[in-house]
């Protein structure tokens, strides 16, 4: 260990992450103290991880952080996560940021101060590449002054911000590629909550737990769109067709329009979603390069709608993974039996049911004949604890049928997952 260069020791200490461990390790010898001072890359202060911090006053914690940060030179990564109820002095936190801002590349900022400080005034126009802000209020964004010329990743969680400031903030990041918006409180500017975002460089966006009237996203370079646990009347995506991954999980939306962005989709993953299959399929049917299609726990607006598997096979010839819950309605089974289609590239089939049924086996048997190159089959099912005599018979018939099926398709890796 004594022969290790100080730069290597600095890398080792940086990988420890937690400031308390870094400080203890740096006390090993003079070389390690020098590495801590001149070659440490990152520090993490997380007051939820250590019971030691809970025994200290807020002022004492401020002193510890100040002493630790001010012993370093050229810190590139700083993470500060404090308890929900505590507040730090604004002047002290400002001193930490001012001291590190010239070298800082990554900042995770979950700090409450009194009064609230404007982190963009302090860290703007520097070399910051990744910024995460949690439990803060953002007001008065000035994109001409508070610019982040190097920022590629921005995450806002439990942040209060107006729709205008959110768009201005995005425009202040001319190289932004990844955006995460989680549980934002969008302040009202009129009777409707409308968010309009525009970024020519944005490649990935994740939106969770946000309620809006209208969300309009203009992003020509967008490749990955993921919405989770959101409610909105309208969502419009305006793009040049670069979208590759589209995920909707527990989203309520009345009007959904992806425009021309869907032409190069490779992954469509929809779960806990109610929609019109006809309109949805029309929207994604131009995605001839689709590789993965997942429809899980979905419901249709029209009870007579069915998933047209033949249309799926015809529209998506390169489909390699298909996942869906089969509701086993009679006309869906009839369609599968009669369709002349083949899914030659399908390698993984994931299928499930909400209630076990006698027709599941013939349904699955006929469908497997359409998949000559299948390598893996995953079957999800729900079996109730309290079973009637008829349900026991159905379960017994199903088990016997699955044994026959496995013997028939010994080249397929079959997995069963029951709830």
TrEMBL record:
Q: Where is the F-box domain?
A: 4-45
| SUPFAM superfamilies found in the cross-reference section | F-box domain, RNI-like
Q: What is this protein called?
A: F-box domain-containing protein
Organism superkingdom: Eukaryota
Signal sequence bounds: none
């Amino acid at each position: 260990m004594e022969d290790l260069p100080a730069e290597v020791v600095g890398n080792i200490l940086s990988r420890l992450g937690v400031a308390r461990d870094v400080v203890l390790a740096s006390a090993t010898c003079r070389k390690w103290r020098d590495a801590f001072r001149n070659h440490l890359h990152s520090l993490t202060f997380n007051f939820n991880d250590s019971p030691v911090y809970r025994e200290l006053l807020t002022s004492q914690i401020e002193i510890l952080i100040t002493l630790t940060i001010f012993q370093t030179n050229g810190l590139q990564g700083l993470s500060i996560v404090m308890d929900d109820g505590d507040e730090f002095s604004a002047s002290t936190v400002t001193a930490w940021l001012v001291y590190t801002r010239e070298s800082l590349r990554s900042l995770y900022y979950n700090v409450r101060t009194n009064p609230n400080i404007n982190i963009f005034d302090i860290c703007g126009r520097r070399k910051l590449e990744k910024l995460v802000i949690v439990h803060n209020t953002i007001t008065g964004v000035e994109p001409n002054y508070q610019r982040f010329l190097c920022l590629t990743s921005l995450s806002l969680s439990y942040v209060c911000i107006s729709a205008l400031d959110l768009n201005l903030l995005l425009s202040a990041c001319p190289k932004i590629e990844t955006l995460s918006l989680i549980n934002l409180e969008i302040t009202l500017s009129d009777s409707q909550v409308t968010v309009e975002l525009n970024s020519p460089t944005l490649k990935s966006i994740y939106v969770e737990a946000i309620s809006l009237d209208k969300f309009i996203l203009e992003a020509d370079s967008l490749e990955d769109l993921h919405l989770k646990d959101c409610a909105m009347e309208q969502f419009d995506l305006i793009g040049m067709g670069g979208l590759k991954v589209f995920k909707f999980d527990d989203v309520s939306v009345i009007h959904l329009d992806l425009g021309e962005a869907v032409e190069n989709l490779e992954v469509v993953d929809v779960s806990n979603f109610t929609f019109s299959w006809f309109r949805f399929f029309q929207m994604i049917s131009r995605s001839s390069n689709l590789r993965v299609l997942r429809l899980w726990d979905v419901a249709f607006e029209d009870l007579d709608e069915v998933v047209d598997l033949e249309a799926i096979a015809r529209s998506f010839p390169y489909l390699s993974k298909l996942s869906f819950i089969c509701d086993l309605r009679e006309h869906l089974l009839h369609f599968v039996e009669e369709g002349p289609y083949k899914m030659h590239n399908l390698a993984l089939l994931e299928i499930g049911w909400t209630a076990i049924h006698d027709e599941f086996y013939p349904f699955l048997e006929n469908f497997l004949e359409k998949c000559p190159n299948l390598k893996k089959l995953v079957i999800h099912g729900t079996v109730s604890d309290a079973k009637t005599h008829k349900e026991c018979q159905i379960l017994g018939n199903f088990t016997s049928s699955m044994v026959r099926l496995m013997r028939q398709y010994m080249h397929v890796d079959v997995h069963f997952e029951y709830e």
